[in-house]
Amino acid sequence: MKPQRIHQEDIELLSPEGGKPVKMWTQGVPVEQEARQQLEKLAQLPFVFHHVAVMPDVHVGKGSTIGSVIPTLGAVIPAAVGVDIGCGMMAAKTTLRANDLPDSLARVRSAIEQAVPHGMTPKTRNHKGSRDVGSWNNPPPAVDAGWAKLQGEFDAICRKYPKLRGTNNYKHLGTLGGGNHFVEVCLDEEGYVWVMLHSGSRGVGNAIGTHFIELARQDMRRHMVNLPDQDLAYLKEGTQNYDDYVEAVGWAQKFARINREVMMHHVIHALRGVITKPFETHVEAVNCHHNYVQKETHFGKEVLLTRKGAVSAREGELGIIPGSMGAKSFIVRGKGNPESFNSCSHGAGRVMSRTEAKRRFTRADAERATEGVECRKDEGVIDEIPMAYKDIDAVMHAQRDLVEVVHTLKQIVCVKG
């Protein structure tokens, strides 16, 4: 029997047979059939609590969809958290106005690119063993200070899992990465300058996520657990693997937060080098994860809540919802909607894969779509073209009962990896 789908006010409800309900804030935005199927499989897991909440930026992910909020009792799904553990956003308002910026925004972009390692060296025979361009050669003092807050706990994790020590952890702290990660200079509705950036736990988070995803799969094989999707392999509370994962994922989330703080420090320093007017920053600052898991209380139960491409939106809590390279972004204040587990979307959400975007669009398309933004416009960023994402205005309208807009930001400089 196919799951029944009914509409109740602005929430679409999926009711998979034998599973928990799936509540979707997706009115007016496209949702792939494959994403619906992933959600139905996820909701059939016996340890999912109450219901699954789905944000309007939902799209297909590994195991579970990106843009979903998953409460669990007694188990955690490492692939639902993913490998970019703690990925998230940071934004800071400055006292600068638009007319305080230099005439050449290319100078601003260049200063940021020099201050923050970004991208990565392709893994070719010639580059094997050489330094990744997206890491530090000689980490500056801010990296040392950040690493000092992380090293002791990381050493303890590595005593259990020595292979994690081989990741480029220390030299990745305060670096951007690639893909959809970015640093932007934006203007708000009153013409104030903001700095906004998007990154996570870099190589070490990837290593932790990958390692525990495999341990979960091994557990499933060992206990002959039949899953609707092998990427939904889970770790059961009370096991050593579960305890170790909770410890490691918590550390990776801390790394991600400090990573953004160090980057913001270096970006602000870079701006001071090209802007002559003295200015203050962190007038309003937000630093939020959107790929993470933590203990929270909902509907009278303490649960492990996984936000896979979703942001905490407790009542009064500030968050960040970015658009794309050519679209506006938003600083929002949560409304504390219990049905969404106090959550909102983490962005616009993709409407097509990176491969499809590269097939469909050209460099000329990218140039037109990012007109007025000082940014890369070459073939290497076509997969990030604005048309590969959902309409951010439609996404915001669909979650109007989850958040209210505090500031609307439009980027004028964008640095991509």
TrEMBL record:
List the GO biological process terms.
DNA repair; RNA processing; RNA repair
Q: What is its EC number?
A: 6.5.1.8
Kindly give the InterPro entries that the UniProt entry links to this protein.
Answer: RtcB (IPR001233), RtcB-like (IPR052915), RtcB-like_sf (IPR036025)
- Which cofactors are named for this entry? Mn(2+)
List the active-site residues.
346 (gmp-histidine intermediate)
What general EC class does the enzyme of this chain belong to? ligase
Task: Specify one Pfam family.
Answer: RtcB
What would you give as a GO molecular function for this chain, any one? DNA ligase activity
Positions that bind Mn(2+) 2? 198, 290
The leader peptide range reads none
Keyword Manganese on this protein? yes
User: Which reaction does this chain catalyze?
Assistant: a 3'-end 3'-phospho-ribonucleotide-RNA + a 5'-end dephospho-ribonucleoside-RNA + GTP = a ribonucleotidyl-ribonucleotide-RNA + GMP + diphosphate; a 3'-end 2',3'-cyclophospho-ribonucleotide-RNA + a 5'-end dephospho-ribonucleoside-RNA + GTP + H2O = a ribonucleotidyl-ribonucleotide-RNA + GMP + diphosphate + H(+)
Assembly: Monomer.
What family is reported?
A: Belongs to the RtcB family.
The protein here is known as: 3'-phosphate/5'-hydroxy nucleic acid ligase
